[in-house]
Amino acid sequence: METQASSVALRLGAQVVFRGRQPLSQILASSEAGLGYVLRRVSLRNGSAELRHEICDGEGGRLYTNPRMWPLIVDRFSEPLVRAVRGPPGEPPLGTVVDAMAGLGGTALRLADTCGPACRLVAVEVSSPLACLMEHGMQRLAGHGEVWSEAASRVEVVQADAQDFLAAWAAGNGAGAELPDVVYLNPCLDVTRPSKEDLLLHKLACLKPVGREMFEAAVACAQRRVVLRHPKGMKLPFGLKDSTVQRIGGGRSEFIVVDSAKQLLKYVTPGLKILM
Questions:
Q1: For 211-251, what is each residue's pLDDT tens digit?
Q2: What residues contact residue 79 under an 8 Å CB cut-off, 6+ apart?
Q3: Which H or E run contains 25?
Q4: Are strands 96-99 and 182-185 parallel, antiparallel or unpaired?
Q5: C-alpha separations of 66 from 36, 133, 206 in Å
Q6: 99 vs 77: CA distance, rounded Å
Q7: From the DSSP assignment, how many helices (H) and strands (E) are in the chain?
Q8: 76: helix, coil or strand?
Q9: Could you give the strand order of the β-sheet that contains 155-159, starting from the edge strand earlier in sequence?
């Protein structure tokens, strides 16, 4: 674990810290990046303990991919996101799903779990620090021998611009011979009311909304459908129409399901150039 921590910290320009009683702000005073890769032992209710890995900035910001941070979806068939990605009952199992804006990997882990052991989950993240945290976090999760471990072992982390990655895959230069069945697009974070932890995430993330070219690349790549997370009640983007897409509600957001590139060609607005 110490070797892994040192490797990640080196990539992030952070200082490795074994958390004790000294204030973190004092420890990080000598860090050029102002970041610390903090290792701390946490006691659990069952009497056991685990070593937590966190990136901290000394000002209340923390980022981590640790056990129990993302409870798995229990009622998986009623969850709106799962219904949107898995598709209707009776459809063949999914072979590959791409989470194209994966962040720290929480959604990727849940989708890997709910889509079943035969599903390959490719998690794409443009921010090098976040991709680094996610990659090593999934490796740790996979080695825990817990309920989330099998799913974590099937999450492949790719540090890349999602638009370029999807376009290359659609052109035959991507992450496998077979195109993915589903591409999931989750736009940038809500920056209107960030928490202290979110402020650090915003510093390290690339806060970029889903644009037309990104959507086109996803459509060209997905064999079955593109799923787009979208604010509930807002006008559909990219010339999409309610008569030709499915809306699946979920709290303040909803999931827009576009079935396939061939169907999409029938109803997009003029000027939308599908990359095929």
A1: 899 999 999 999 999 999 988 888 898 888 888 899 998 67
A2: 73, 114, 250
A3: helix 24-27
A4: parallel
A5: 16, 10, 22
A6: 19
A7: 10, 11
A8: coil
A9: 155-159, 120-125, 96-99, 182-185, 225-231, 253-258, 246-250
Kind of pairing, strands 120-125 and 155-159?
A: parallel
Give the 3-state secondary structure of residue 111.
helix
Q: Where in the chain is the domain with CATH 3.40.50.150?
A: 80-264
CA distance 51 to 256: 39
Residue 64 has pLDDT above 90, yes or no: no
pLDDT, averaged across the chain: 80
For 162-185, what is each residue's pLDDT tens digit?
A: 999 999 999 887 666 689 999 999
Residue 58 · residue 25 · CB < 8 Å: yes
Most confident stretch, 118-127, 198-207, 240-249, 255-264: 118-127
Nearest to 125 by CA among 98, 102, 152: 102
pLDDT at 267 over 50: no
The class level of CATH for 80-264 reads: alpha beta
